[in-house]
C-alpha cells in the first residue's frame, strides 16, 4: 500500500488544479486517470469544439457583410479543420502526464474504486490517503430508446474524419446547438430535435427564441416538443422516428441530450458517499457525506454551471481548504455561460426572469442593439441585451446577451459586476472608441 496526503480521482482541469496546488503546499499527492490525461475539456470538449467553431464564426461574419463590402462566401474544409484540431489535441495527454511527473506528483492510470477501508484500488495498486478528491467529471448521456446502439455522441462528432451530408442531433442544449452550428456551417443538413418547446432552459426565454429563429434562418431543421423514439438502419443511413410519428433518413444520429456524472463503479457506497441523479452531494466545503472524501467539478451536484473554469476554481479552493485549519466555505463569483455559434448566447448574474419576479429590487433594460454602431458596422443580424439593474444601488448585477459579440460583452460585464462598479465608476473610465467596451456606459 502506498501512502499519500491526498489522492485525486480524475486528471482533468479541476483535479489538476487541486493536484498542483496541494503539491505546492508540500503535500504528497497522487492523481488517478482512467482515460485521457487532461480530461474532457482539452481532449473532447470545450477546447477542440472552439477550434472547430473558429471558422464557423468567421464564416458568419463574412455572410453578414455580403453586399456590404464583401463578395464571395467562405467554405469550410472539414479535413483541414480536423487536422488543425488533432494537431492540438494529440499532444494533450502526454503533455499533461509529463507535467505531473516533472512536478513530482505520483500518477496512476486505470479505473479507481474505493475499498471498504477507505483506500483506493487502481489495478493491483492500493493507495491510502488522508483525503480523497473525486474529480471524475461527466460523460455524454445516451438515452434509452429503441436502437440506442446506433447513437453516437459528441466525442464521436469532434473526431469525424469526414462530415456526413445529413446528421440528426438528439437534444438542443449547449452541445446540440453548438454542434448544429458547426455541422451546418460546414455543409451538412442538420436536424436538431428537442423533447420540449423550451430548450436551453437556464437562459432567458426571449433570447432563446431569437436564437432558434437564427438557427432556422441558417437552414437548420429545428424540431421542438418531440422525442426521438427509434433509430434503425436503413441501407447505409438510419431511419429516425419521433413520438409524433415523423420519420426521416439521416447519415448519423448523435445523442446530445446532456451529460451524466461519472460515479458508476467508483464504489462510493463502500465509503458512504451520498449521490443524487445530478452527482455527488457536497456541503459548502465541497465535502461529501464522508468527511475524508471531497468532490469538485462536473461530478458534483450543485446549482453552479458545470464549466471548466468552475472546476478549476473549486480545485484552487480545495487547495486552501485541505491545508488551512477552519477554512471558510466556498464562495462563488458570478459565472458567465456562453452558447457559441455564428450568433452567441451569453448570461451571468441575476437573470431577467429573477429580476421580473422581484420588481421591488430589480429593473431590466431590454435593449435592441442591432442599430448600435458596434453592431451596425459588422451588420450583426440580431443583437439584443437584457441588463439587470439593482434599483437601490443602480449597479448592473446581471445580463443576458444575444449577438455575434456576446462572449466579449459578457466578460466585460463580468468584470463590472464582480468589481461592483457603479455607472459613475464606468463613466470615469475612458475606453477605446468605438469598441464594445465603450458601450458599457449606456447599458444602465
Q: What secondary-structure arrangement, pairings included, does this model have?
A:
Elements: E1 2-9, H1 13-24, E2 29-33, H2 40-44, H3 46-64, H4 78-89, H5 92-103, E3 106-109, E4 112-114, E5 120-122, E6 125-134, E7 138-140, E8 152-153, H6 154-157, E9 166-170, H7 174-185, E10 189-193, H8 205-217, E11 221-223, E12 228-234, E13 237-242, E14 247-250, E15 252-255, E16 259-261, E17 275-276, E18 279-280, E19 293-295, H9 308-321, E20 337-339, E21 344-349, H10 352-357, E22 362-368, H11 373-376, E23 384-390, E24 396-403, H12 406-418, H13 423-428
Parallel strand pairs: 1-2, 1-6, 2-3, 6-19, 8-15, 9-10, 9-15, 10-11
Antiparallel strand pairs: 4-5, 5-6, 7-16, 12-13, 13-14, 17-18, 20-21, 21-24, 22-23, 23-24
Helix pairs in contact: 1-9, 3-4, 3-7
Give a verbal description of the structure.
This protein has 444 residues and is an alpha/beta fold. It is 30% helix and 25% strand. It has helices at 13-24, 40-44, 46-64, 78-89, 92-103, 154-157, 174-185, 205-217, 308-321, 352-357, 373-376, 406-418, 423-428, and strands spanning 2-9, 29-33, 106-109, 112-114, 120-122, 125-134, 138-140, 152-153, 166-170, 189-193, 221-223, 228-234, 237-242, 247-250, 252-255, 259-261, 275-276, 279-280, 293-295, 337-339, 344-349, 362-368, 384-390, 396-403. The strands form 6 sheets. Strands 1, 2, 3, 4, 5, 6 and 19 form a 7-stranded mixed β-sheet that branches. Helix 3 (46-64) crosses helix 7 (174-185). The protein is globular. The model has no long low-confidence stretch (mean pLDDT 97).
